[in-house]
Each structure stands twice: as C-alpha cells, then as structure tokens.
Write a structure and sequence with these properties.
nine-stranded mixed β-sheet; six-stranded mixed β-sheet; 12 helices; Rossmann fold; alpha/beta
C-alpha cells in the first residue's frame, strides 16, 4: 500500500494519469495455520478465498489480487503470529491482512495492524472482544456469544432445564460459557456444573464421568473443532451419556462439516446454533456448494470456507468502492454497514462494531441422502453479537 500511495502521489505530481498504475497488485496476506493441529482451518479459509476469486475474477479496481499465504501454526501462539504479521508487512509489503483461524492469532496481531495502519479481515477467530482491539479489524465469521445465546434460548424453551457446560479454556470457550449461562438462566434454566479444559485436550472421559453422575438434561459444549471434538464425541458415546438421557447442545462449531463425518452416527440428533450449514436451502448456497465440490472434490464446504469466501467478497467490494485504495480508515468506513447475500443468507457489517450481523439457525444433525448434515429448522434473524460491552 505504501508503495502504491507513493507512486500514485508521484504520478499525480507529474500529471500522469493514475490509471497507468492500475497494474499494482493488491497484496493480501493470508495469516492462517496450514500445518499442525488446526491446519484445516487455514486450508478451508484459503479454499473459500480462492473460490471467491475463481467465481468473481481476481482483479479489483484494476489491481490483480496476489495472495501471500503464511503459515502461523499452531495458531495458538501469539508470538509466532505476531512475528509473521510483522514480516508480511515489512518484507512482503501486504496491503491487507486476512485469515486468523484462532483467537490468539488475532489478539497478538491487533497492535501491529493498528500501528502499521493495515486493514485486517477476520475469517474465523470468534472471541467477541477481538474487534475492539484494533479499529482496523472487520469480521466476516461469527462470535461465540452470537451462537451461544440463541442456543440457550432455544434449549430453555424446549424442555432442557439443567445444563452442564464444558468449554475449552481460552477466549471463545470462556465467551461461549459466559453467554450461555447468562441467557439460559435469564430464560429460566439452571446451570448444574461447569468445567474448562485445555484447548488441545483430547481426553474427555474423566469430565464426562463426572457429568454423567450429575445427570443434567444436556451438556453445552465449545471446543475448537478437530481432534478435541472427535475425542469428545467418542468418549461421550463410550461412557453411555446418551443412554443416560443426556443430550448434547453446542454452537455449530461442534458439527463443522469438516469433522462431522469423523463422528459418524454418534452425531445424529445433536442440536446446534450456527450461521452456516452446507445443507442451507438457498440458491446462493446451492451454487456455492456446487462450485466448492467442483474445485475441491475431497473436502466439504464449512463455516470457515464461507467466512473466507465472504471475507474476500468484503475486501473486493470495499477496495472497488474506494477506487483501488486500501487506506485503513477508508477501508473500515466503506465496510461499515455493507450488506450482501452470502451462501449462509443476508449478512451485514455492523457499523458500530465492525462485527457481523447474521441469521443464527437452530439445526439438528440428520442423514440427508446418506450424508450427515446440519438440517436447519428454526432461526434467529439478523442476530448481533450480544457479547460486546
Ligand atoms: C477461535 O479460536 O477463535 C475459534 C476456533 C475455532 C472455532 C471458533 C473460534 O470454531
């Protein structure tokens, strides 16, 4: 961006049309884990971003998009993410940073983008507070409170009276737990126990034995999808909690299409609240899903790929609106209030918070044409993040 500004200024001073400079590439630094335990997060985000460019063209306001992918695995080390973001800005000279698979990446990079005045688009990391840490953050994914509140309201209304919460002990887990408790108790439910587990925990048996003894109507869960949730589902089945009449309710992170098949039929009947399902019935989603499978026949479209897709849409729309400029102030000004049709439904960037406003659906895992899917059956339209102060 700096180079673009300088060249543009020089061109204007010399009376040369800046149209001639349109060839300057639009460099987007994609900061995501693509190796390690959360490798799928980065890969799915990258697939979504690339699919957008494939379907809509890779030139914005005359500038060809150049993706600079940098792996900041494991995604849970802020120090690694910070160093790589600094390199992206200083060496790669990126105009925009995007990606952020996990919360620690985004929190660590916040002061860097603020200081360098680089706009950044969050395509997954979902702790509510992140967008308050830099004025240049815009988010196209979700927040945990945004999904936990509808889950709590739905549960309280549908015969679930006693809930035990189990969350990963870091930003999104703490957010999910706090919002679920707040909404569920306000709606008349009772929290009969809570536990926080390490973010990379893969042995749930001791926690589940204790929960079985307490006999809640349901367990409310947030653990980042992957090895941890696969272990949870296995231990839940092996310990006989379902037979004891205990249900699983969660934010839809649990039933991410990317890991759903690994759970097998143990996932049938799990109820979650979430913004995206591969099974969502709309023309936009049908076209998206078809294009996704055509490009990536071995993978399933999920919420991370869609947030990458929508994040790239946002970047393209904002940079086009600003005539090719990626000035951070102009970027967020143009993003505020922007609204469009995503594969998940209508989404809007809240002008007050730069966070996403979207419909949160209540879904149940069912088999559709032999495949496990999150089948939507209720919804909370245009739902804002309730987790902001
Ligand atoms: C996060 O670290 O912010 C995070 C990770 C996985 C999710 C949601 C949020 O599914």
């Amino acid at each position: 961006m700096q180079r673009f500004k300088t060249l543009a200024a020089a061109a204007i001073a010399l009376g040369i049309s800046t149209g001639a400079l349109a060839a300057e590439p639009l460099k987007i630094g994609l900061l995501v884990p693509v190796t390690g335990p959360f490798a799928d997060y980065g890969k799915q985000i990258e697939r979504g971003v690339k699919l957008y460019l494939e379907r809509n063209g890779d030139t914005v306001a005359g500038r060809k998009v150049e993706l600079v992918l940098r792996d900041d695995a494991p995604g849970t080390s802020g120090e690694v993410s910070k160093r790589i973001a600094q390199e992206m800005i200083a060496n790669d000279k990126v105009d925009i940073i995007a990606g952020f698979g996990l919360t620690p990446e985004a929190l660590a990079v916040a002061p860097i983008i603020t200081q360098a005045k680089i706009p950044a688009v969050i395509m997954n990391a979902a702790t509510s507070i992140i967008t308050t840490r830099s004025p240049y953050f815009v988010r196209t994914s979700h927040t945990l409170p945004q999904d936990a509140a509808p889950m709590a309201t739905w549960a309280a209304k549908h015969g679930i009276k006693k809930v035990y919460t189990l969350v990963a002990d870091y930003g999104p887990g703490q957010d999910a737990e706090a919002q679920f408790k707040k909404t569920f108790t306000a709606d008349g439910g009772e929290i009969v126990g809570d536990v926080r587990v390490p973010v990379t925990n893969v042995d749930f048996a001791p926690y589940l034995q204790k929960i079985k003894d307490v006999k809640p109507d349901a367990v409310f869960l947030f653990v980042p999808p992957g090895a941890g949730t696969i272990a949870f589902m296995k231990d839940f089945a092996n310990r006989g909690l379902a037979q004891a009449g205990i249900r699983i309710i969660a934010t839809g992170d649990l039933t991410d299409e990317n890991v759903l098949d690994a759970y097998g039929d143990a996932a049938l009947g799990v109820i979650t609240a979430f913004q995206y399902s591969e099974d969502h019935d709309s023309p936009e989603n049908k076209a998206y899903v078809a294009a996704f499978y055509k490009a990536y026949p071995k993978n399933r479209p999920n919420f991370m790929s869609v947030a990458g897709y929508d994040g790239m849409h946002l970047i393209a729309a904002v940079v086009a609106k600003n005539g090719g400029s990626t000035d951070a102030e102009k970027f967020v000004d143009a993003a505020k209030g922007m609204s469009w049709m995503s594969p998940r439904g209508k989404i809007t960037i809240d002008p007050a918070t730069r966070d996403i406003v979207q419909t949160v659906y209540i879904r149940k895992v069912e088999k559709v044409n032999g495949k496990l899917q999150n089948v939507e059956f209720d919804k909370f339209p245009d739902f804002k993040d309730p987790g902001k102060p």
